[in-house]
Specification:
By secondary structure, the protein is of the alpha/beta class. It has 17 helices and 13 strands. Helix 5 (108-111) links the parallel strand 4 and strand 5 (122-125). Helix 10 (255-264) packs parallel to helix 15 (361-370). It is globular, with a radius of gyration of 22 Å.
């Protein structure tokens, strides 16, 4: 709270200076800034859109802003335009850019704590994923804040929400994969539906790439006939400083039984925890049980496009995997406690999502032994994806150009 107070105070004190600079120099519509995961990673929707713009929109100057030195040096080695968030050049780009986008936040991923420099910039919140669980302002802990924002009960709030784009629907846009999600995004983000583009999210283009992932290629060399499963559950309390999710110490997990099934039926199990949780298990129970270690450059979409089966619970990765038309095993092991203690659901999770479901590890084992998993049909997938192709970034860029009038 103390840190937030000082940041807010700095913003109020410096805003007249920022406003004056804006009047004097203005913003450049063809200067776009990008960032991801609070400036700490190079991944997700913003990475995909950034690389598309670099390769295809030659009149746009695209710049990646990061707080992470590993990301900075990696992009420098590729000769991609990148600056560190604290540098004078980054501040210049923040003041001059006409457009900003990020995957967790339209401004936090790029501006960081310098949000007061975001005056009069057009922002696109790319979202981290399509919602099934309550997100954004629909989270229980933000219910009071949502009420204040929607009612704008004080003059101070009215001024704040009219000036800064991350709260201002006139400057803020978002994206969806389908009309199905638009009402939920509208509620979660407080963005009118006519400012949510149903173009598909940029990272979906990765699924249609023919480029092979080196990590998966190495696994297939070692296990040439195996089906590769990737397990990607969502976080629970870790985002708010609570304990990490540890699924292998509960829900009936039996390591010997599980490994025996992997070996007998020729599976390789990739264990990938959520970014907030880190490792789901410190152990690798066999050479067929592999922990995927997170790092600032890991892009899971490079992994999932070449895997055979997805296992997840309440994660939006479920929807992103569907265009591959491959099987998903849903694992809502703690459904009751999750919906009661962490996040509610926008719709009936058990009835709405048509994949096979396992409510403990014994049921997972049974599904893997019987091979009773199945892919959704294309018709089922089209409910969640208006487009099943590799052109989401192109469609979205066209919409951005329209709102910027360039």
């Amino acid at each position: 709270m103390v840190r937030q107070f000082f940041i807010l105070s700095a913003g109020i004190l410096l805003f007249p200076f920022v406003f004056l600079l804006y009047i004097l120099i203005g913003r450049k519509k063809k200067l776009w800034i990008f960032g991801s995961w609070r400036g700490q990673k190079y991944s997700d929707n913003s990475k995909a859109l950034f690389e598309y713009v670099l390769q295809n929109e030659k009149d746009i100057k695209a710049v990646w802003i990061t707080k992470n030195k590993t990301v900075y040096h990696e992009l420098k080695s590729k000769q991609f335009p990148v600056v560190m968030n604290h540098s004078p050049k980054a501040v210049y780009y923040m003041l001059r850019a006409g457009f900003s986008t990020g995957s967790l936040s339209a401004t936090t991923d790029t501006f960081g704590s310098k949000w007061f420099l975001a005056y009069k910039i057009t922002c696109l919140y790319l979202t981290h994923g399509m919602p099934s669980k309550y997100a954004g302002y629909d989270e229980p802990k933000l219910a009071h804040k949502k009420k204040l924002i929607t009612e704008k009960k004080s003059i101070g709030l009215k001024l704040y929400f009219s000036v800064f784009p991350q709260k201002n629907p006139r400057n803020l846009y978002s994206v969806s994969t389908s009309d199905f999600f638009v009402p939920f995004l509208e509620s979660a983000l407080l963005i009118p539906s006519n400012r949510i583009f149903v173009t598909g999210t940029p990272r979906l283009d990765t699924l249609f790439s023919t480029k092979k992932n080196d990590y998966i290629t190495d696994i297939r060399k070692k296990f040439p006939t195996a089906k590769i499963i990737i397990y990607m559950p969502t976080f629970r309390a870790s985002f708010d400083g609570g304990p990490s999710f540890k699924p292998f110490g509960q829900f009936g997990f039996n390591a010997e039984k599980f490994i025996r099934i992997l070996e007998k039926h020729d599976y390789v199990f990739l264990n990938k925890g959520h970014f907030w949780d880190g490792r789901l298990s410190e152990r690798e129970f066999s050479e067929r049980f592999i922990n995927v270690i997170d790092n600032p450059l890991l892009d899971v979409y490079d992994l999932i496009k070449d895997t055979d089966i997805l296992m997840t619970d309440y994660s939006s990765i479920y929807f992103d995997f569907l265009p591959l038309l491959k099987p998903v095993i849903l694992t809502p092991f703690d459904f009751d406690s999750y919906t009661q203690n962490y996040r509610g659901q926008y719709y009936d999770y058990r009835q709405e999502l048509p994949s096979i479901k396992a409510f403990n590890w014994n049921e997972v084992c049974d599904i893997l032994e019987k091979k009773s998993y199945f892919p959704l049909t294309k018709a089922q997938t089209l409910k969640y994806h208006k487009y099943i192709d590799g052109n989401s970034s192109a469609r979205l860029t066209e919409e951005i150009r329209k709102i910027l009038s360039i």
